[in-house]
Design goal:
With 339 residues, the chain is an alpha/beta fold. It has twelve helices and 16 strands. It is 34% helix and 24% strand. Strand 7, helix 6 and strand 8 form a beta-alpha-beta unit. The protein starts with a strand and ends in a 6-residue tail after the last helix. Bound molecules: NADP nicotinamide-adenine-dinucleotide phosphate.
């Protein structure tokens, strides 16, 4: 058993912790929280050992009726691997602590590539990250693009990619973020996503542009992919359909928006209505002249949670082959291969 501690129990940390609990080769040592809010209550409710960042916080948590198991340092001692799911930028500071305790750690997409040895997406570069001490699971947008593009590369060499990312404004529980009535363009070309994809896929001619829209459900990606040779729609469908963690969504069933896709997750009774898979709209795969267009939806809260299981196993080389780890995680969590 690999003993895992999750430092930070918010949108991502919660999902990582609950996924770890379901793996028979991983043991959850506990999670850390800063505030005694409903997420701390959830940890107590589901019997997840809860740690605070320092001694001073214990009384505050207990005054809120939250049971605390100890302070961060004690938990770090007992773990083999830390999954850092603290807010953007905090992970870089926490790295000092992991070095001090002599631990391996996995960081999330809000951290910079510079603080790790490898930036990671399980189906794209599992082997490259094998055994490395510090690895970063890239952001939700980057993970989705790395999954789709690493599969498309199997058909033919990609000459160039141009991507428009329509990003959600906030996660559903975040009441202080916006916009609530505006579409906010970003004037930076490329947006930070294109260089981030290259940290996983290496050399690739990719440029991305990003806008933020007032929704909390999902991101939408519009990718224009040009191959070296002519590639038909069926080849694109075949390769994406046989790939793990990518689903082709039948738009003919009315699944033609992020709203209906989330409604489907509810109807299927998926945990937290989560989509771990990248959802490619069937009618969004098109050929126009020599260009291939792909439109997909990405559930920002959920898509990277499972990547962390592979990142954990890869650190201690439980599996040399990423495919076996992906299969194990996906079986335990009910990830779909086809709708
Ligand atoms: N949300 C997304 O859509 C998304 C998608 C992909 C990747 N990411 C990345 O994942 C990381 C985490 O994001 P998130 O959205 O999960 O953030 P979040 O919901 O704000 O959760 C952050 C968690 O870290 C805790 N925390 C705060 N300060 C800490 C510290 N000094 N040490 C340890 N933990 C601390 C917070 O505690 P309290 O709750 O007590 O404040 C909270 O539980 C970021 O790098 C982000 O860029 C986010």
């Amino acid at each position: 058993m690999i003993r895992v501690f999750v430092n930070g129990f918010g949108t991502i940390g919660k999902r990582v912790a609950f996924a770890v609990k379901k793996q028979d080769d991983l043991e959850l040592v506990g999670v850390a929280k800063k505030k005694p809010d409903f997420k701390a209550y959830i940890a107590n409710k589901f019997g997840i050992p809860l740690y605070v960042l320092n001694e001073d916080q214990i009384e505050e948590f207990e005054n809120h009726g939250i049971k605390v198991n100890g302070v961060l340092g004690e938990a770090l001692e007992n773990a083999d691997i830390i999954v850092d799911a603290a807010p953007k930028g905090v992970g870089a500071k926490n790295k000092e602590l992991y070095l001090k305790f002599g631990k391996r750690a996995i960081f999330q997409g809000g951290e910079s590539h510079d603080i790790v040895e490898v930036s990671f997406t399980a189906q794209a570069n599992y082997r490259q990250a094998l055994g490395k001490r510090f690895v970063r699971v890239v952001s939700c947008n980057t993970t989705a693009m790395a999954r789709v593009l690493s599969e498309l590369r199997k058909i033919a060499n990609i000459r160039r990619v141009r991507g428009i990312l329509v990003r959600r404004a906030a996660d559903p529980w975040e009441t202080k973020k916006g916009p609530i009535d505006a579409i906010v363009p970003s004037f930076k070309i490329p947006s930070h996503h294109a260089p981030d994809v290259k940290t996983v896929l290496g050399d690739l001619n990719i440029i991305t542009l990003a806008v933020v829209v007032p929704t909390t459900r999902m991101h939408l990606h519009i990718l224009n992919v040009e191959f070296d040779t002519r590639v038909d729609v069926d080849s694109v469908i075949d390769v994406l359909e046989s790939a793990p963690r990518i689903l082709i969504v039948p738009t003919r069933l009315g699944l033609d928006s992020t709203a209906t896709i989330i409604e489907l997750a509810r109807d299927l009774g998926r945990e937290r209505n989560d989509w771990y898979e990248v959802l490619v709209f069937s009618d969004g795969i098109r050929v126009h002249d020599n260009e291939r267009w792909i439109e997909d939806a990405v559930h920002q809260e959920a898509v990277v949670g499972r990547e962390n299981s592979e990142a954990i196993r890869g650190r201690v080389k439980i599996y040399e082959d990423g495919g076996r780890s992906i299969e194990k995680t996906d079986r335990s969590l009910g990830i779909l291969r086809r709708l």
